[in-house]
Amino acid sequence: MKIFSTTRVFVCCFVIGTGVIAKGDDRTTSPSVEAKKITAAKTSPEADETTAPDAEPAEEEKAKVLSIGSLAPSLDIEHWVGDSPSPMSKFEPGKVYVIEFWATWCGPCLYSMPHLAELQSKYEDQGVRVVSISNEGLRTVTSFLERPVSPKILGLPEPKEEADEEVGESDEEAATEEEAKPITFGELTSAYSLTTDPDESVYEDYMRAAAQNGIPTAFIVGKDGYVEWIGHPMSMDEPLEAVVNDEWDRGPAKEEFERKQKVDLALREILLAYRTKHHETTLRLLQEHSDLFQGTRYETALKSIWFPTALATQQNEIALELIEEKIESNPDDVVAINRWAWEVYEAIESGWDNSDEILMTTTNALESALASEENESNEALWPAYDTVAHLKALANDTDAAIEWQRRAIETAPDGEKDNLKAYLRELTGEASDADDELNAADEETNED
User: Is 61 left (phi over 0), alpha (psi -120 to 50) or beta?
Assistant: First the structure.
């Protein structure tokens, strides 16, 4: 069955995975009827069907103990990189620290580097120290530091490939002087402490403990050694200034962060259950956390999990409500309706009891969309005709199913007709007669 195969769509909507998660806007077969149905959006992108564990998925670790207001863990960093790394492990009272996590492959991390260097220079005399930590190998990081920095990262225009022929010698000299000499990442980051910790002990103490999965992420540690703020380094100017000037109120920031933390943890738990095909668990978690997602960017997108989960668990009331919402939002969108209608067909065909109302509502919605003025001149509706035929067959309306399948065959590309005819033969039980009749119809069409 393929009714539960929307994982990749869902992951794209949320920009989330089991590994690194994007944070905000910048955190980082042969042709056949079935193939055409996929390209026509009849079926959802397929998930990994090799994973089908029998046991319930393991619960998320409960060691998510680091939050705003927590005592900051000491730094057990393996390698301090650069000309003057000045290794440290304990936080000195009265000083402020920015602990930032990055990687050489992370584009947003690289674009954050000039800002980190600027903040270090700005607050150095006020006891601020920036420590940036990668979990990559030492050789990877040291090699990276030798690379030249792209002008885009520095906020500079790209150098011109060819000089203007009309520019005089004096102008050329001035332009040369104005052009910034290329610098390496090692030079760019020399203002602050760049490090790497391949055993991920610090990553464990900070990122995993705070349920943070996207980089770059920065932690501001205040003068008393407690975490004051957690977030994207490009968004920390205001809190950092307030912490330095003893004007920071961590209460509101803590409340906002912990709400987001709960949302992220719940979302990850739902994804784990969904991907491992534990549909009952997924349904329970969706119901349990429905209030938590209200007002978040995930609220609408979660419906892409609600629908296949409702189908998988045969939740008539939930499925019908979602179907009615889909119809109301796109009553004439044949492609959209055809997509979820095929999911409904597969769910019912697999043995869904008491689904007559869902079958009727789905069939009516697709027929209504096909009959709309918007789709009168659309010549690419054969996948929907084929879906209606399948739905009619489920309702034991064989005559109507045959009629719709004939329409699908008449309008389908030549490469799809044989596969569509196979289903027609299944409906009619008269393989040779049906084929002869259709072939004759094709010949008449060609002669015309």
Answer: beta
pLDDT tens digit string along 61-80?
444 579 999 999 999 999 99
Chain centroid to Cα 112, Å, comes to 22
Nearest CA to 214 among 108, 320, 334? 108
| Dist CA 167 CA 301 (whole Å) | 56
The values of phi and psi at residue 421, to 5°, are -65, -35
* Residue partners of 355: CB distance under 8 A and separation at least 6: 314, 316, 347, 348
3-state secondary structure of 181: coil
Rounded Cα distance, 112 and 109, in Å = 5
Whether this prediction's pTM lies above 0.90 is answered by: no
pLDDT digit string (tens) for 216-258? 999 999 999 999 999 999 999 999 999 999 999 999 999 988 8
Residue 79 identity? H
- Asked if 76 contacts 89 with a C-beta cutoff of 8 angstroms, the reply is yes
Assigned token pair, 35: 């193939």
